[in-house]
Amino acid sequence: MPARTRAALASIRRIGCGLAIAAGLLAGSPVHAQESHAPDAALQRLLREAQAAVPGECGKPGIDRLVRILCSGRIRIGVRDHYPLFSTRSGETRQGYEIDIAQAVAGKLGVAVEFARVNAANRIPMIADHKVDLAIATMGHNTLRDGQVRFIRPHYYRSETIVVGPRELGVADWKDIPGRTVCGTVGNGSNTELVSHDARLMLFDDAVSLPDRLDDQSCTLAAQDDSFFASYFTDPRFTGRYSAKFGFAQVPWGMAVNRNGSERLGRALDLMSQIFHRDGVFLASARANRIGTAFLEQQATVWARPECNNDTGTTNPACILPALDATLKPTVFADSVTAFEAWCASRTGIDVMLPMLKTAPAWSLFKDGIVNSLILVTGALVATLVFALGFGVALGSRSRLLRWPVRGLTVTLQSSPIVLTLVIAAAIIHAMFSYSSGVALGAAIVALGLANGSNAGQAISEAVLTLRAERTALPMSGLHLFSRALARSATQIVAFLINAAKGTPIASFIGAPELLSALTDITAFSSGRVSTYALLLIFYTGVVMAVVWLCGRFRSFLERSHAAV
Amino acid sequence: MNPLSIPALSDFLPLFLAGMAVNFEIAAIAIALGLLLGVLLAATRVYGGFPGIAAASLVALMRAAPTFVVMFFLLNTMSREASASGGQFAFSGIMTVALSLVPYAGAYVADSGVDAFQQLRRGSPLAGLLFLPNIARAFFVLVMSSSAGAAIGVTEGIAVILHQAEYLPSLADKLVLFTVGIAFFGVPLQVGFALLTLIQRRLGRIATRNQEVLVEAPRVT
After folding, report:
1. CA B109, B113, B119, B124 torsion-angle sign
2. Are B97 and B148 in contact (CB under 8 A)?
3. What residues of chain B, 52 to 71, have a C-beta less than 8 Å from chain A?
4. Residues A387 and A497 in one domain
5. Of the candidates B64, B148, B162, which has its C-beta nearest A541's C-beta?
6. ipTM of the complex
7. Model confidence over A370-412: pLDDT tens digits?
8. Range of A172's domain?
């Protein structure tokens, strides 16, 4: 052996001895003592204890679900069937980020995995009914659900709602949202935030229809979880046409188990989740499935920190994320309303639901909606009458200079569908004033007044012409002629006043916060749509019938006032 | 590219015309259903008695029901998972808008039908025939009203215009686009109304001539 080689080996031996001594010292140090508090060790202890109960306790009632899983050698995990990139099924093959997590969990427990199909509506009942041991099913963790299932922390993912629209559309943040229509899904928790930023909601039952609605141009903007759009953004055609404008309403996603009888299982899953974050298991799976990784990268850093990487990390507020606060403050009479709903259901079998009376935000929207609707109806009636008089005077004038431009305006207004007239009025008014509910109400009043007032004004001017033709021999003062014309065209004036009142709900299209708009916002975050819209129909039909009655009195007054002449 | 440039307009116009076809389709469905319902209600009103009173009350309710609210009511009740013969069905957006217009169309047909029947009873068949131009007038009103479909995602003419307007930065450009829309809706409407006026005048002249003949007839005999 050459001398140089011997010297090198001697050096390696010395380094090896040094390392061995250092390792020995380290083993006896307090740092090593901390190993027993590592989440891995805690998980192993927990699993050992559970294994010790197998098979002795397998037949006993009330055993923890962890022991039951070990006894049966399988874990039943609820997953979704069609949530691209997260959990999809093709025949017997399942794939996606959540499927990877399910298999990793089963692997740690040393059991087989049995998948069960769940959806957004039944995932919590399936856990509560013990039909699945665990759900990994795109479930956002909020304070309302905390009372229904036990969420595993740390969370395995975090989504946010993103607003998606055509690439060339200049929408960058909330300041670009007021007055715009945003398509979303019924019951989505983030709808409240869109409403609070003066967006007009167009709601669909199912998120799957949103990309189609963007394509067929029914929707210009769509708001939904980024996890939902993740698969679409892997499609070059979709990415070429649309982009995510901005995000909001971040929601952590959690695995969930039953609140009762799953204490050990929950604890084991907490520790596993913690380890998966620290070791990059979640992150690697997310990358493999091409989903967003920003949250998981940040969590990997958090769970590697000494204060989090221990067996108490999952209860440390500095390490875990809070649940999304989705609790809506109830009204003082919420209990009475609930009791009334129950009474109706038991006595009549009809499920009457009154969400607008049960929570403070809904009640506030409802009250404002009624007040604004009444203001709108009154304003539309007054505006129609004022414009009718104005158009009547101008169209009945002998001056062509006045008559012809107004006739042109009348024909234009008659040719414009009311929705378009409203949008034009809103566009012009918004160019002068910044968006607000009051401005939207004002624009709606002007548009409804113009559309109906021009028609009523034309009727007045026609009456003026007939009166002039009939009374050429009898000279009449201008004022007297006009008041006679009003009496003669009373039926037409009243018809267009009623039409104006009937048209007021269309004001919701330009963001006027009347009752239809308010109730659409309320149903966007609560249930009971059938009762809510039935109530709306009754309200507006009642208001129009009241207007019909009042207009009947008004017509009688107009006709009576000139009956003697 | 200016969204109002020729290439952009060449993309927009086919979409817009297809959207306008949807407006006419909605109006056609609504008037057909309105005719069925309205004629039935008119006949019941003419029949009189309790059924007549009930029919008149129903027509008053239908007249008072705001189309836009009816549309949202249908959208959120009937369009959902309603059960039909044990199965599930859902109305399309077009059908939802068309159905929301039926109360108006039905009430209008019922009122016009009763008027026409009374004219026929009075021995004025031509005045009774005014029922037909009245129905045509209702059809044009329905075409304009069908634009409410834009609020529930139906891709009709106004929805196409509003989508295009989203890309226009200035108010002036938007107003030009809106004017194009008004012209496209206005021309058929105004032509239709002009035709109706002509028909009504012609019917009026025939009626006057017939009346003169009827007045002269006794003298001849």
Report:
1. positive
2. yes
3. 60-61, 63-70
4. yes
5. B64
6. 0.85
7. 999 999 999 999 999 999 999 999 998 888 899 999 999 999 9
8. 159-250
